[in-house]
Amino acid sequence: MTGIIDYGVGNLFSLCSSFAFIGEEAIVSSDEAVLSSCDRIILPGVGAFADAAEKLRSTGLDKFVHFCASSKKPLLGICLGMQLLFDKSFEYGEHEGLSLIKGEVVPIEPDVPKELKIPQIGWNALIFPDDKEKSPLFKYINNGDYVYFVHSYYAKHCEESLIASTEYGAMLTAAVSNGTVFGTQFHPEKSGDVGLSILRAFCEMK
Amino acid sequence: MITKRIIPCLDVKDGRVVKGTNFLGLKDVSSPVSLAKFYSECGADELVFYDITASVEGRAIFTDILKEAASSVFIPLTVGGGINSVSDFDRVLKCGADKVSVNSGAIRNPSLISEAAKLYGDQCVVLSVDIKRVDGVFRVFSKGGRENTGMDALEWIKFGLDSGAGELVINSIDTDGVKNGFDIEMLQKVCEISDVPVIASGGAGNMQHFTELFNAIPNIDAGLAASIFHFGEVSIRDLKMKLREDGINVRL
Known about the structure:
The complex is a heterodimer.
Chain A: E1 2-5, H1 13-21, E2 26-29, H2 32-36, E3 40-43, H3 49-58, H4 61-70, E4 75-78, H5 80-83, E5 86-89, E6 95-96, E7 101-107, E8 120-125, E9 146-151, E10 153-156, E11 162-167, E12 171-178, E13 181-184, H6 192-203
Parallel strand pairs in A: 1-2, 1-3, 3-4, 4-13, 5-7
Antiparallel strand pairs in A: 5-6, 7-10, 8-9, 11-12, 12-13
Chain B: E1 5-13, E2 16-21, E3 24-30, H1 32-42, E4 47-51, H2 56-70, E5 77-80, H3 86-94, E6 99-102, H4 104-108, H5 111-120, E7 125-134, E8 137-142, E9 147-152, H6 153-163, E10 167-172, H7 184-193, E11 198-201, H8 207-216, E12 222-225, H9 227-230, H10 236-245
Parallel strand pairs in B: 1-4, 1-12, 4-5, 5-6, 6-7, 7-10, 10-11, 11-12
Antiparallel strand pairs in B: 1-2, 2-3, 7-8, 8-9
């Protein structure tokens, strides 16, 4: 059973449909007891970092996310949910993240040629680092497979945890992992078969 | 590098996909759910559902169909048609839409763009504009291309961008259904003023037209079409293979 953390951020319809489609049980909940009984956890999120971080803290679910990491319960942050895993974000000010992955979230704009549009919206290829073994999250997909991105900020200074980048005028962080904590900047639930294969791989983690 | 997107558009009326020539003479084509699945499997990068139903009953059928499609298709879905308020945004987002496109509803109530952008984020709000040349000037048409609003298209687009529209769908009424190619001149003008993705619509008749579009306007993001895909004249897979051969970066 996969638990999807409901902390009032974003639309969980597609995520739930994805799990149903791959035949994996998933439950959306804000109840720590329910989430604790799950084998693995998804931290979703769209919108602004500060607002999402505040909602996570005010519901006390930030502690549960920390508990997942320390108890080795597999955790996958998606999009803003991934960004929350980092030390801090510079989206409209400076905001504390969960510090489960070393690095910070910064605007894409200053780091890419100015003719490129912000946000990056669309399908871009995953590039696995050649000095690391392929992440178990990607066991069913290949280097160069395409996934769907929508973002104006990206994680930086996280070389240690980097498991995939994407090229958008500069190399941008596409996915990270630290032990059993995983994060994807892109949306696996919107990335066709490749995305579903990533979710399937995550569901095999215990 | 980010790929150019190919987007089939499904005009849905009373639960069925239709497509007209110059917006008149609608023909029944297929079931939206099976067509959506088919396109997704063929490599479509995104799907647009336009609800052209006028009745309340038809709208309810549409919402059901959207839900069904969104439960089995895992690529981005944009929904348009009959979006007049933020509660309409809410209605389709809850049924699995990722983006919502506004057209006549935003013309009637321009603050809809900024209200929705604040609530759901810029990336969720797509401004769709039907444009036609009238005495040499690009004019905005509303109500599915039937009514000349008299508004200057580029001025309207600038307003939309300032209000927070995160993407533009530009449909040329002059080329729609004619199958003679996209309206490069019009699209070029729009791309010059847009800092958000621009999706070209209206006029695709064959694969070469997509190559021409992406070569003529390197910073255009996507090409949208309906009938050439629905009637099987062009398969998305073949189209993308040709685009790649022509040096255009696509997802295959």
